[in-house]
Write a structure and sequence with these properties.
The protein is α/β, with parallel strands linked by helices and about 300 residues long. It has ten helices and 13 strands. Strands 3-4-7-8-9-10-12-13 form an eight-stranded parallel beta barrel, surrounded by five helices. The protein has a three-stranded antiparallel beta sheet with strand order 5-6-11. The protein has a two-stranded antiparallel ribbon with strand order 1-2. Helix 4 packs parallel to helix 5. It binds flavin mononucleotide.
């Protein structure tokens, strides 16, 4: 029987969004279970949904190690993993055996060797392979660790990818929700473009946000930051900017689409901040690393007590 120590089931925590019923609104963000190896075991930590990936068509090593660093003084992490994964086909073989019952998101990207002009083909391959086995999709164009990937957030290439996936989706027996994951480093005018793109392509929602390339307002010394080098910063240092992006998208679009809020959630109050800013669901990664296995239960317990869900 599954371990229930860190889980909490209550009908009042359920949330229906884009045709799916989430048993609670706190999910595991992408990057933790990149290869769909652990989602069964991870259900024991109370998550309402788990996002696997980022997966790419071909297996790839990612960047040389060491590529993940703790910023303990800031409760943050810097990573430059670079989409290390065993390729979409291997993940599919594992997902075929899935009987976990948990909602699984499939986060998809492009291989490092694929030039941006051909990126759409990589997203298409991953989409087709995973389509029968995941409940929703996330188009990741916001990782700072694949050279030039974030240029795909520009209107033209992004619209091309999303229109392609929408068309493919329409041709399937069952349609899966498609979300777009964005960086916290976009300007207001780029966020305005994102709102327009969601409205034009009619995708199902936004995940805000990925890690940041900013190094502002950190307690960690510049010397240490220089030693660490490039990478995406996550955890408490990205919390404020991530909430701002959610608030901006929600207000400016007049709540035109669902938002999954992620970035620096370590406590129940952090989760409530995201929900109040306009997020419909939230995800965690770095907070789970720092706060440990009881974290999700603590959050959802508070959501129940405060009716903040
Ligand atoms: C080590 C590490 C690896 C990550 N890998 C991915 C990834 O493969 N795809 C992705 O979309 N986001 C990835 N992320 C970003 C997280 O999903 C999340 O958006 C970000 O870390 C902000 O949330 P947090 O502050 O709760 O960690 C990764 C984050 C970390 C720390």
């Amino acid at each position: 029987m599954a371990c229930k120590v860190h889980t909490l089931d209550d009908k009042k925590l359920e949330k229906s969004l884009f045709g799916l019923t989430f048993k609670n609104p706190v999910g595991l963000a992408a990057g933790f279970d990149k290869d769909a190896k652990l989602y069964n075991e991870l259900t024991a930590f109370g998550f309402g949904f788990i996002e696997i990936g980022t997966l790419t068509p071909l297996p790839q090593e990612g960047n040389p190690k060491k590529r993940m660093f703790r910023l303990s003084d800031d409760s943050g992490l810097i990573n430059r993993m670079g989409f290390n994964n065993g390729g979409v086909k291997e993940a599919v073989e594992r997902l075929k055996k899935n009987n976990s019952g948990i909602i699984i998101g499939g986060n998809i990207g492009k291989n490092k060797v694929t030039p941006n002009e051909n990126a759409v083909d990589d997203y298409e391959i991953c989409f087709n392979e995973l389509h029968p086995y995941v409940d929703y999709f996330v188009v990741n164009v916001s990782s700072p660790n694949t050279p030039n990937l974030r240029a795909l957030q520009d209107k033209k290439p992004l619209t091309e990818i999303l229109v392609k996936l929408k068309t493919l989706n329409a041709s399937k027996n069952k349609q899966r929700p498609i979300l777009l994951k964005i960086a916290p480093d976009l300007t207001d005018s780029q966020l305005d473009d994102i709102i327009e793109i969601v409205s034009e392509t009619k995708i199902d929602g936004i995940i805000a946000t990925n890690t940041t390339i900013s190094r502002e307002n950190l307690k960690t010394s510049n010397k240490k930051l220089e030693e660490i080098g490039n990478g995406g910063l996550s955890g408490k240092p990205v919390k404020k900017r991530s909430t701002e992006v959610i608030q901006y998208l929600s207000t400016k679009s007049k709540k035109a689409f669902p938002i999954i809020g992620v970035g620096g959630i370590h406590t129940p109050e952090d989760a409530i901040e995201k929900l109040e800013a306009g997020a419909d669901l939230v995800q965690v990664y770095t907070g789970f690393v720092y706060e440990g296995p009881g974290m999700v239960k603590k959050i959802i317990k508070k959501l129940l007590e405060t009716n903040a869900n």
